[in-house]
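Need a sequence for this fold. Nothing fancy.
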């Protein structure tokens, strides 16, 4: 059966965002007649509305293509599409673990950019065969020779092989890409007769079929009606259907070693199957699982609340999204100001934005999103065990806290040499400490130790702005470390608004508080009476503004009842203020 595997190639396409990765995937599918002219559309594999809207790939996809060479031999090309945005690096690493080689696409008009370098490193670390490709060579702005030199700077080994020159848009040179996939990417080397060993590299939830897992078969055979065992939870189930994406789901009777396809697991519990799990035969199991993936750690937490009190609908939508996105984590949460909702864990602000847009596009749900934050480690007085808090509302009173530590990351920024000074200023302004400075071809790799809270808001956008889109950011979790942090609370009309509570550095607290109360004064809906907005740190008001009334009160004296005045004085006033999303959006700029 080894002969069959000689005609299989499993590969991915990696590139910086907008370098033509999805366009090349479209051309490969057209030239292998995977899709007809009638069925074809731009960004064929980007079927989420948010993917087409942002021009980025968010979810990895797998599709089987059949390529017939000049000798009449038919090959099975399994293309696994990968995202390009830094927030979705985990999707890239997952896709690469199911492949044997990659196409590294570089835009001739822009050259090697930061995410090119980051993705190249991922492929190198996974010991994959890398085929370098220069795209958009027919563009008037193309600098083909300069781009080739930058690719050679990445890895001197590229000099020993042909660097392909193509135009994915017109199809020029794509036939050479198909030949290179056949000739350079190694065939899989699985054993059809060994116990079944299949890697789950993605999954989605179908309301009728249950969990549909995307798998790469490393050893053995998977048939429909196989009694399968999932290693992570020791869960047994009989699959209902297996097949491939071509690019639509196509049912088959058997998937063998080297194949990439899908399994309708028959499991209805959306949390039962983990991404990175190993599937084996329950009757003849393999002795050890595949390495799988490092568990994804959320970098940013934020509250998600239904705008129109449809909590049940939001609950169902979030459960379905969580299955389709292994990095999105959530738990129920209740806020006095916003009611029942969820606290979500995200990879970054762009990931949070994508989740919000998917909730609206796929489920018709508008959500209110609170200020993002990270997890904090508290040491309390007279208590040895540390307390981990994700939600600022749950912080104990400041008088009980001995020390606050926050999580740090090693932030690796890849950028052109001439932009180093600007990037260093930006990083040091966000409490970053330089750890390492390295050169890679024409690029510089600066590694800073930075608090997650400093990169959680708009750091990535600022990095792109300062570097004119040329820099990229990849992060690696570091340890917790001491920071002089304070809890900043907001009271409107003397009632604490828990959804606006945030944790910030003491040196920044006064500036942020002053900006917050000014923005709230302008954005919070007015009432008949004047409403004070106060920013409170450690029991002390450090900033205050008044929200003016809807109209001037004609009669003298207060319009507030005596009971309300008493509640205000005792700090027991309840909030009945509705906060529009514009409030939370405006506060995101304050980091």
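Here you go.
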């Amino acid at each position: 059966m080894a002969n069959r595997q000689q005609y299989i190639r499993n590969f991915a396409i990696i590139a910086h965002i907008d370098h033509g990765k999805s366009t090349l995937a479209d051309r490969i599918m057209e030239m292998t007649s995977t899709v007809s002219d009638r069925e074809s559309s731009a960004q064929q594999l980007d079927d989420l509305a948010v993917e087409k809207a942002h021009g980025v790939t968010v979810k990895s996809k797998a599709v089987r293509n059949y390529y017939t060479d000049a000798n009449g031999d038919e090959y099975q090309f399994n293309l696994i599409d990968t995202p390009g945005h830094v927030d979705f690096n985990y999707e890239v690493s997952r896709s690469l673990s199911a492949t044997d080689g990659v196409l590294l696409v570089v835009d001739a008009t822009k050259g090697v950019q930061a995410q090119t370098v980051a993705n190249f490193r991922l492929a190198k670390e996974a010991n994959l065969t890398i085929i370098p490709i220069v795209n958009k060579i027919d563009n008037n702005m193309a600098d083909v020779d300069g781009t080739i030199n930058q690719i050679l700077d990445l890895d001197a080994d590229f000099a020993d092989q042909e660097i392909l020159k193509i135009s994915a848009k017109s199809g020029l040179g794509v036939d050479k890409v198909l030949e290179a996939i056949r000739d350079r990417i190694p065939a899989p080397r699985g054993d059809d007769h060994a116990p079944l060993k299949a890697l789950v590299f993605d999954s989605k939830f179908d309301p009728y079929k249950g969990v549909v897992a995307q798998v790469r078969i490393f050893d053995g055979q998977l048939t429909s009606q196989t009694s399968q065992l999932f290693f992570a939870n020791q869960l047994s189930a009989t699959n209902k259907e297996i097949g491939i994406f071509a690019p639509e789901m196509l049912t088959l009777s058997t998937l063998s070693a080297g194949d990439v396809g899908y399994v309708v697991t028959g499991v209805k519990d959306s949390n039962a199957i983990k991404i990175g799990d190993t599937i084996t035969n329950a009757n003849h199991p393999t002795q050890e699982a595949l390495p799988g993936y490092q568990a994804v750690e959320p970098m940013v937490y934020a509250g998600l609340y239904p705008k129109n009190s449809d909590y049940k609908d939001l609950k169902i939508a979030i459960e379905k999204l969580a299955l389709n996105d292994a990095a999105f984590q959530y738990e129920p949460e209740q806020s006095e100001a916003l009611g029942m909702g969820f606290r979500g864990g995200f990879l970054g602000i762009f990931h949070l934005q994508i989740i919000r847009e998917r909730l609206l596009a796929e489920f018709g749900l508008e959500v209110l999103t609170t200020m993002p934050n990270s997890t904090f480690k508290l040491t309390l007085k007279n208590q040895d065990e540390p307390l981990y808090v994700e939600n600022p509302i749950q912080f104990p009173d400041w008088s009980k806290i001995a020390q606050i530590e926050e999580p740090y990351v090693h932030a690796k920024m890849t950028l052109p040499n001439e932009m180093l000074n600007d990037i260093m200023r930006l990083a040091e302004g966000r409490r970053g400490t330089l750890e390492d400075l390295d050169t890679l071809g024409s690029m510089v790799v600066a590694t800073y130790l930075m608090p997650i809270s400093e990169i959680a808001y708009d750091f990535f956008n600022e990095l792109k702005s300062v570097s004119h889109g040329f820099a990229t950011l990849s992060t690696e979790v570091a340890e917790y470390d001491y920071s002089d942090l304070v809890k900043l609370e907001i009271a409107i009309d003397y009632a604490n608004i828990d959804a606006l509570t945030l944790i910030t550095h003491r040196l920044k607290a006064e500036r942020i508080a002053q900006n917050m109360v000014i923005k709230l004064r302008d954005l919070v809906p007015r009432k008949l009476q004047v409403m004070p907005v106060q920013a409170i740190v450690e029991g002390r008001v450090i900033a205050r503004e008044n929200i003016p009334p809807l109209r001037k009160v004609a009669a003298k004296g207060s319009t507030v009842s005596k009971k309300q005045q008493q509640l205000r004085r005792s700090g027991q006033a309840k909030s009945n203020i509705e906060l529009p999303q514009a409030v939370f959006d405006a506060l995101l700029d304050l980091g």
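For context: Residues 37-60, 84-88 have pLDDT under 50 and may be disordered.
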